[in-house]
Amino acid sequence: MSSLDGRILVTGGAGFIGSALVWALNQRGHTNIVVTDFLGSDEKWKNLAPLKFADYLDAGEFRRRLTANAASQGKFSAVFHLGACSATTEKNAAYLADNNYEVTKELAAWSLAQGARFIYASSAATYGDGAQGMDDRDADLARLRPLNMYGYSKHLFDLHAQRVGWLARIVGVKYFNVFGPNEDHKGDMRSLVHKAYQQILATGRVQLFKSHKPEFKDGEQMRDFLYVKDAVEMTLHFAEKATTAGGLYNLGSGEANTWLTLTRAIFTALGRAPQIDFIEMPEVLRGKYQYFTRAEIAKLRGTDYGRVRAMTPLAEAVRDYVQGYLATGKKLGEL
């Protein structure tokens, strides 16, 4: 039975993946959705404008109301907790511990108490440099060493959920390098596709970081790039089909592609010949830079995901994003 038949809560619903999830729910005919977020002074509110949902509430106010009275917001059949500070460069550890860890604990406990399906965003950043592997089937979470406080704040909740026995009843999704429509507001946290598109319009060229490891040539550092439309389909799978699955799941393409492969696909989508320059990596990033990521997705495929929907090939995803959204300025849900 689908967990999407009642009211649905999407935290971080104005953000990149959150708004894409609301869009995907709308595509399925679901509009009984409550969205929470911190809108702030950026323009992510524009992500909400084309979408259909029943109510919006400031995330801080939602938390205050639940703290005062757990029953104040009524019942939900599914809770997608995607709201978090996602800046890997954020240095305020206390803020990250509260916003990414404590809030998730509160929402998970509340969701479980009312029988709602709880699906939350963990992160591939919990794996650190990948020295301990990136296999979501490994139950020894304590071995992982995130490279930044963002990753550690996500890791803290994964550890907590495992320690108190929640992981069998909830799902934590570890997104790899997601790109696609509705990320405009993310500043430096935007994907290379968005940044490169702007660079090409301005200069005709794209800048990539040089490698500081001899085993990787410049531009041949590798990432698992995942189109946001695929990311939300995978996320919704745990509320539609794999409704009894529990634990941590990698969400990625299962393939590692180089920055050069991705950049060339952007130029191809624009009908231009690649023009690429290599620049020095900032010192602040060198010790925290991941040179290779690839999601092990056998566990996801074990939930029959591959039989439900095929993933979008990288070149096709880049073309859809560049031509359908970046070049037109459209948001998800706009005609």
Any overview of this molecule?
The protein has 335 residues and is an alpha/beta fold. The protein has a domain at 8-179 and 224-253 and 294-309: NAD(P)-binding Rossmann-like Domain (Rossmann fold, 3-Layer(aba) Sandwich). It is 37% helix and 15% strand. The chain is built from 12 helices and 13 strands. The chain has helices at residues 16-27, 45-48, 59-68, 93-114, 149-163, 192-203, 228-240, 259-269, 283-286, 298-301, 305-308, 314-326; strands at 8-11, 33-37, 55-58, 78-81, 117-121, 171-175, 177-179, 206-209, 222-223, 225-227, 247-251, 257-258, 276-279. The strands form 4 sheets. It has a 7-stranded parallel sheet with strand order 3-2-1-4-5-6-11, sandwiched between helices. Strands 7-10 form a two-stranded parallel ribbon. A two-stranded parallel ribbon has the order 8-13. Helix 2 (45-48) links the parallel strand 2 (33-37) and strand 3. Helix 8 (259-269) crosses helix 12 (314-326). It is globular, with a radius of gyration of 19 Å. The chain starts with 7 loop residues before the first strand and ends in a 9-residue tail after the last helix.
